[in-house]
Amino acid sequence: MKSVKALLPKSIKIKWKLTFWAALLILFLFLSYTFVQYVVIMKWVNNHERQTIQKNMEEIYAYLLEADSEQEILESKAYIDILNEHHQLIRIVSENNSVLFTITNKVPKNWVSSQSALKEELVEMSPKGDRLLVYRKPFEVTGFKGTIEIVRNLENFESLINQITTLVIITGLVAIILSFVGGRILSFQLLKPINSMIRTMKSIKENGLNKRVNIDKQHDEMTELGIMFNELMDNLETSFQQQQQFVEDASHELKTPLTIIHGHLSLINRWGKDNPQTLERSLNLSLNETNRLIRMVSELLTLSRGDFSTSTAVLEDIKIKGVVEDVVENFLTLNPDYNISSSIDISKDFTLKIFKNHLEQIIIILLDNAIKYSKNKKEIELKVKHSENSLAIEIKDYGVGIPEEDLPLVINRFYRVDKARSRKNGGNGLGLAIAKRLLEYYKGSIEIQSVYGEWTKVIINIPLRKDSDVLFRKK
Ligand code: ADP
Fold it and tell me: Residue 113 phi/psi, 5° resolution?
């Protein structure tokens, strides 16, 4: 046997599925209710008819028992006539099946043949299409022995049932239409947010990412879906804009060294072949630019990947003091004219769960900046301390400083306060962005304070985590 589901075409839209199921449910409920009502009414009417016929019989029986002869029974005809009801026949039949008298109200005598009974009986029959209830009860008085026979036409009952059936069919048809309309309204209400979402998605596909779904005032699961969708689109739009900005910035930054190299190569092409001085100068400058390019590309890679290739490796406890001291020592060897005074206020065994190369890279970026942007006073102060919750590293220099309006921006990719000076120092404006990205991995933060022309202080904070290293896994 085919199930109801199999009747639905496979590619049918949700709105029609919802309409169909809702209509089916409403119809089922209506029909079951009507059916129960029908059965109850039938039973009730049937009982009522039986009770009426029984009551009639009891009255006639009691009356006839008082008679003393056949003659008196005959005389009781007038009284029984009064007792008779519509659509009912009453007959007194003698023992030999001959009829003493008959009283009838719209029940033809020949429908049921007279019959004396030996014991009380109540039967239902339908000899000419009409349903009849026949009740026979034997009785005996002085001078007469016979049967009281009552035949009741259930025509009233029939017409009532017919009316109910017609009513059920008509209301059933109306119910089918109403349940279809109801199902349609229900599905429309339920699918309104989804349809709006589909329209928005279409519009996003055609016109770009800036469209959003309208959010209903009443809060339900669909509204939540809409809010989620809008948030997702916000994130997508932001990340798309960031990507676009990144590509624009990177192309712009890569173009400068490439233009310089192109210029020098043209120069060599035109004059340099015969002029060893031009040749050497241009080659050297081009080499410088290619070095810058190489560094920039590798920095860009670090930034985009976050250099988290080791992210699945288990973090180990790193002794911070040793790492900081090693980096400072390297810097002093490379920049002997600088004085880096370090106050490392943590014990030798103080450890932190961090990748050693990440910590080194962050300190190198900050010390490198401190040296690059120093003026005459080649003094750098480095402080390391820890509180209950975090480790703080502070690097202060007395160099060019950063103007107040540039402070919030220097952390952005490719942002340089003094482009010429920064380029001369080999800066691409990516160092602080890389440090920030690395710190984010450890849920750390970076803060820059400065007084323009006097000093710059960069403070980084890394939260201490005593629990599992899984917290540091790349998201
Ligand atoms: P860069 O490679 O250009 O140094 P950074 O991201 O490290 O890139 O720094 C961005 C800009 O912030 C620098 O170009 C510079 O103008 C400014 N800056 C960073 N550190 C300092 C500092 N210690 N003193 C003065 N200016 C700084």
Answer: -75, 140
Tokens 């233009």 belong to 259
375 contacts 415 by C-beta, under 8 angstroms: no
| 196 part of a folded domain | no
Rounded Cα distance, 166 and 427, in Å: 93
**Ligand 1 pocket, residue 370 CB under 6 Å:** yes
* CB-ligand 1 contact for 429 (6 Å cutoff): yes
Distance CA(53)–CA(416), nearest Å, equals 110
CA of 318 to the centre of ligand 1 (A): 28
- Domain with residue 416: its CATH number is 3.30.565.10
Does ligand 1 lie within 6 Å of residue 422's CB atom?
yes
Q: Which pair of structure tokens corresponds to residue 425?
A: 């120092």
Whole-model pTM: value is 0.53
Q: What total of structural domains would you count in the chain? A: 3
Asked, for residue 153, whether it belongs to a domain, the answer is: yes
List of residues 6+ apart from 369 with CB closer than 8 A: 397, 427, 431, 432, 456, 458
- 146 Cβ below 6 A of ligand 1: no
State the helix-helix crossing angle for 276-305 and 431-441, rounded to 10 degrees.
20
What is the span of the domain harbouring residue 404?
Answer: 315-463
Ligand 1 atom 21 nearest Cα: 369
Q: In what order do the strands lie in the sheet with 390-397?
A: 339-344, 379-386, 390-397, 455-463, 445-451
| Closest-lying ligand 1 atom to the alpha carbon of residue 458 | 23
Same-domain check for residues 332 and 231: no
- The string of pLDDT tens digits covering residues 162-211 is 888 888 888 888 888 888 888 888 888 878 778 878 888 888 888 877 88
- At residue 370, the pLDDT reads 95
- Cα distances (angstroms) measured from residue 285 to each of 212, 278, 423: 52, 10, 13
Contact 425, 431 (CB under 8 A): no
* Residue 473 tokens, joined: 């896994």
- Which amino acid, one-letter code, is at 223? T
Q: Ligand 1 within 6 A of 402 CB?
A: yes
Q: Which residues of the chain have pLDDT under 70?
A: 1-11, 305-314, 421-423, 426, 466-475
User: Measured from the CA of 432, which atom of ligand 1 is nearest?
Assistant: 6
Could you write out the DSSP letters of every residue in 146-192? EEEEEEEETHHHHHHHHHHHHHHHHHHHHHHHHHHHHHHHHHHHHHH
Q: Does ligand 1 lie within 6 Å of residue 373's CB atom?
A: yes
pLDDT at 168: 81
Mutate to test the pocket of ligand 1, among 303, 382, 416 (most ligand atoms within 8 A of CB): 416
